[in-house]
Design brief:
The protein is mainly β. The protein is built from one helix and six strands, in the order E-H-E-E-E-E-E. Helix content is 6%, strand content 22%.
C-alpha cells in the first residue's frame, strides 16, 4: 500500500483538480465521491489534505463514516519522502 508523508498528503487538498484525501488514525482515505468534500472543505470546519485524527471528535458523526470511502494509503509521520503506489 502507498505511504504518504504529511507534506504529500497536503497536496491532496481537493483544490485545483486534486482529489480530497484525509488521514485518520494512520489510514489515508479518498473522499472524492462525497459532494460534502468538494472544494476541499467540509462544513467549513475540516480541510482535506490533513490528518483529521484529532479533529474528528468535533464532528457530529463518528469515524465509522470513513468506512464508506476507499483507503488509498498509510500516513507515515517523520519520513521526508513517500513511496510510489
Amino acid at each position: 500500500m502507498r505511504t504518504f508523508t504529511r507534506v504529500e498528503l497536503s497536496r491532496y487538498n481537493g483544490k485545483d483538480g486534486a482529489p480530497p484525501y484525509v488521514a485518520y488514525e494512520g489510514k489515508v482515505y479518498d473522499l472524492s465521491s462525497s459532494f460534502l468534500w468538494r472544494g476541499g472543505r467540509h462544513q467549513a470546519l475540516h480541510s482535506a489534505g490533513k490528518d483529521l485524527t484529532s479533529e474528528l471528535g468535533q464532528a457530529p458523526h463518528g469515524a465509522d463514516l470513513l468506512a464508506e470511502f476507499p483507503v488509498v494509503g498509510i500516513l507515515v509521520v517523520g519520513k521526508e519522502t513517500a513511496s510510489a503506489p
